[in-house]
Specification:
Length: 453
Amino acid sequence: MKKYYIFLIIIPFVFSCERDEDWNDIEYRDISYEDFFNTDELKLREIEVTVSQSEWDRLIRILNDNIDSDKYVKANMLYRHSPGNDGIVDTLSDVGFRIRGNTTRRIPYKNGKYRRAHFKLKFDKCFDEQEGSPEYTERKSRTFADIEALNLKWGREGGESDVSQIREIYQYDMLQKAGVYVPKTTSCHLILNVGDDVIDYGVYTAIEPIDDTFIKHRLGNDTGDLYKCLWKQMGPATLTKNSTSGSKIGVSNAESGYEPSYDLKFGDANHVKFRDFVKKINELSGTALKTYLDENFDVDRFLRFTAMNVILGMPDDYWGMGNNYYLYFPEKGKILFLPYDYDHGLSGGWHPFNTENADIFRWCDMTGNSNKPLMKVLQIAEYKELYKNYLSTFALGQSALFDYSDYNTNYFQVLRTLYSPYLENDTGEGECFEHYGEETYFSKKKMSISSQL
């Protein structure tokens, strides 16, 4: 394993893991939301996670029993503003640590070898604090960079890999520039300390989760109902009446194996607003549907998303798969559609149909049921024209967001320079950083959209 040497001073708390580290020569300070995420420029951070041998062994036992488990173990986290920079640091003890992912979950230690996996850090996770105690209240309000959790993803190996390492960062950025509410991202060099082992995990993409702090950063409060909608054991989240029947709406429980298509993260357990929304978009049409959507649903942001998603060619979406989005029902205001999970796209990763030349008005159905009630928006003339306008604005013309020169110069080349010293890692996985044919995709996609418009 690679070794990291850190000069030592005392910090304001004692780490509780078996690995008895002192972190020194650091200036402790809080990191803001804007400090941490890519706002003005692309950056590479460093996150060092320390897990005791006993907690790591417990994590591996949990996953061997149930790979879908969402149980956390204790860890300590040290953050550096850039790799090797000890001058700007934040530190947290007893952070929740687990793996994450849907079909991409991996046990991070197998057959005597550390392996890459997607991880989640939970900063407000309570372990030993008694509910109702001052310690419990303080921990439940703890954040890092003004968020309560952080997702860490790697590019993966095999046919669905991202050898460019930046697909998700670029696509989230394009959606954000198009006016869509999506997670913010940054890049990080990940170091994992397990007992006496120091493991360099290489470069990861750090992604803001869609949760209550995500909502607060965009709307100012989170007094509403949030649902995670995805294709799990109960089928795709198409928003048809059948797809929302019975126990297909609920609160997931990974330990018992209950995984509804519409997973309530917080809010009304009776699902009153959700069920009314599903009823309306299925039963209404024409002028009546338009009136309802204008008053209750953020149609403009949904059309911006739909246009940019088609441009990016991400097939694992609502239109094609009934998958990978959240719905937020605010106490006051319009319902929001919030897409996530952008490791596919740009003709890379999983692309089961010709995303370069797909019909911009039909896309592709991979669910066996082409009825996606929300796509009735394109049957309304005013909405269809707005959708076409966004396709043209985002993909065509000299000022288009979707531009290969911008992608290559301002994303690929910049991040390759930042990543290069840290690609080689102790797992031997995710060490590539190369083009895979994106330039061809950009060219063909622009021609396809132009010809169809």
